[in-house]
Amino acid sequence: MATASDKIQRLVDKEYEYGFVTPIEQEVFPCGLNEEIVRMISAKKNEPEWLTEWRLKAYRYWAELERAGAEPRWANVTYPPIDYQAIRYYAAPKQKKRPRSLDEVDPQLRATYEKLGIPLREQEMLAGVAVDAVFDSVSVATTFKEKLAQLGIIFCSFSEAVQEHPELVRKWLGSVVPYTDNFFAALNSAVFSDGSFVYVPKGVRCPMELSTYFRINAAQTGQFERTLIIADEGSYVSYLEGCTAPMRDENQLHAAVVELIALDDATIKYSTIQNWYPGDEEGKGGIYNFVTKRGKCLGRNSKISWTQVETGSAITWKYPSCILIGDNSVGEFYSVAITNNYQQADTGTKMIHIGKNTRSTIISKGISAGHGQNTYRGLVKITRSADYARNYSQCDSLLLGDQCGAHTFPYIDVQNPTAQMEHEATTSKISEDQLFYCQQRGISAEDAVSMIVNGFCREVIRELPMEFAVEAQKLLGISLEGAVG
Amino acid sequence: MSGAAVNAPEAQNIFLSNFERLAERRSGKDPSWLRAIRQSAIERFAQLGFPHARMEEWRFTSVAPITKIPFQLAEREDQTVTIDQIRPLMFGEPEGQRLVFVNGHFCPEFSQLSSIPQGMIVTGLEQALERYPDRLESHLARYADIEQQAFAALNTAFIADGAFVYIPPGVVVEAPLHLLFLSTAPGPPLVSHPRNVIIVEPNSRVSIVEDYASVNESPCFTNPVTEVVVKENASIDHYRLVRESLQAFHIATQHTHQGRDARYLSYSLALGGALVRNDIRVVLDGEGSECILNGFYLVKDRQHVDHHTRIDHVTPHSNSREFYKGILDERGRGVFNGRIVVHPGAQKISAHQENKNLLLSKQALVNTNPQLEIHADDVKCSHGATIGQLDADALFYLRTRGIDLEAARQILIYAFARDLISRIEIAPVRTEVERALGAKLPDAPAAESAPIN
Fold it and tell me: Is the complex ipTM more than 0.85?
């Protein structure tokens, strides 16, 4: 075990790989938040009147909450109070105009994405993944647009969607996460700057993975993106997002909102690999990742599947949820959350069963190392109308080291006697028997720990699209370097 | 519900004025340490007020019905119970040991204590305060958390009577001890705050049945607090039976503190009451200590039964097992919240928890929140929860064998509860639970089941 502990120690020392800053000319707004800033953001985006009004309503609601001190405090995380007036709410790389093609994108920016392993051009060449790259507050490039447009699929930045498809945006924006939903959703609704927009028309199966890469670059900025995905009847789309940020000693705020809408027979698969800067070994710096993600299975036989690998962020506060309204609709949640050093994660899901024969599955794997605190918090609600609803939940936690913590808080609320609901949770450290068995077969302690951790997460990793599964495994390795290899 | 409706601050005032009456009456009698405890508890209650649904611990249980009735403090003189009313509630053991309390006041005339071992003390708390104040001082009100729990604070402010059980070192008490708490309020609605202290010294063993029942169907509020201390290598089987009427409110707090190698078995059996809340907390503060918490709730009509359990593993090498089962019918509502906390440095812990619920009607509702909070790494902890209805295949199978639907349902309901009920070691308690289950299921095979030993 001594070697394994050494490895665990070494993982703690591993540095964050994506911590560089791109020296790029930026256009930034002054720090602070008021109605003027909200109007400025809206004007910058040349938004229609109704959207400006919507933002202002959200801002006023948020300001009221802030005055009342209603910032949520129930999560199992601790952090000093955030000064919302010390944050910059808009930062964008200076570009003369919206680039027509990739060639027009600032080479500096392209280099940044290549450094991150997201070579925009290469991916366009190899018919692989369509990427929308978001740099601080704005989307810098979207690949494969034309090819997708031939099928009627709209995949563009949120600002573009507001200009070109206002009817769709207006119809669905805030329909899943209204601005009154919670403190951070209200903040996001007021100041969101960009994000991705996807619309898949009736009966279309999106031929490639759609992907957004989020990058925070500027200092003192918060990133507030908004993603809206609508899958019309009988369609299918798989969407991935990844994120990184530079290493800084101050904490940066990321408060995103993601809304998914699945109509009859539609399927949305949403995968996240979250690798925001987690702070250093002493827990200094890092991103506060306070995100509201929710999907609505509006139509019959619709399906929404969330998969997340959470390795980054100083604090994660995130509950991708499904509201199962349509009969026979399906919600899924697969999650791996890793906390190391002084990271804190309070994550889980909500499955709200409303329609008949709705089913949901929750598989959550938490790994804590160092001084990490990892909490699963989830809700399964089966309402009176949800006849024959079915839920299966499993939450497992693995503890590496004796300073970390793993907590499980599932809420189960069943109001229908025809429902079947099962919940299981376990917490343990790596079994000495398993380690011994592996070592006895000539596998080093390090490889054995790696194998066992990978096996522990396998149920979730295999839900990821192939390209991401590879990245996720690599990330597991980086986050737990030495213990996992 | 009878009585004029009052709102929560007013209800709080009623309790505060009750307190003044009590403090005045007991001013000369109480030792000074108790007066201080009492005073700080009422001040804390005045600050806390009644819990409301915005509080995490009370999300699913509203105490509003309690605050709507102007409960008066039950006095000893209020009791009008006769032995004939009590007899059906006794466990029929002629030689058994029994303490009877009416509205929280000890009634020696109905109690029976034959042949208790040398050195063992079983008496009412009021007497104990006069006769054994030193023994009580180090334990009474030292465990229950009055800082957070408003009802424990309320009870502490009103400490007057209850049961005091003291088992000296190295004594095995063979016969179970039956503590029967009766509530009755033929006149205006009454509240009682029984306070029980159970101390088991090293190497001793005892079985206790703490039993709450009603004599008549009238609104009353019972707010007991029980503190149990299990010392080194001692063992206690503690059964808690709530079978009050459907007009009764029951909010109980229980705190158990275990020493090295101590063993604690708890059974919480909730069969009656309109609103029942049991807060059960066990602190495993000694290596090799072990606790088993079992519970069964049978909820129907408009009953609301809430169990909040919390097990604290403070020292290494301690084990806990928890197993709760519930059957919910009609408009019944069940809440289960089980928290296991493994403190930093408490290695080599094994803690397992399970909660299973059977929903029988469309209006029944259950909330279950098993929680693990782990701050050590060398542990094995798990929890599981299920909610379901009767298995359609099993029902079909029984019907193919010529058993009608209703009987088949009853067999399956009985089978669901049986593994838990059959582990109850005290025969009269087991019979009582089976009777309650049978009352729901007129033809349940209760008679031929579970041999009574």
Answer: no
